[in-house]
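Sanity check

After download, print the first record. It should look like this:
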Amino acid sequence: MTKIKTLQETIINYLKEIGADELCNPEADCACLIEDLAPCDCIDLQNCIPAKKKFCINCPERNKCSLIEEYKNITYCLVPLENKK
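Expected structure tokens:
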């Protein structure tokens, strides 16, 4: 008998399958890692999208990044995955 997966397990499996590291909600400036999915119980099923970590080291956009100015110890940001056609 196949074990029925929870919604959280289903979301995590899908994110891993497509190569995402987390969910992000660009509208709310919010994100959560797969390992800590929805720590504040705020998954927005209409606006949360898969995202990938973009590390700051050698980032071509580092000089104009507002996150670097705001968060001095930041090591990565989140970039929504692009749809592959």
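If your output differs, re-run the checksum step. Summary of this record's structure: Residues 7-80 form one domain.
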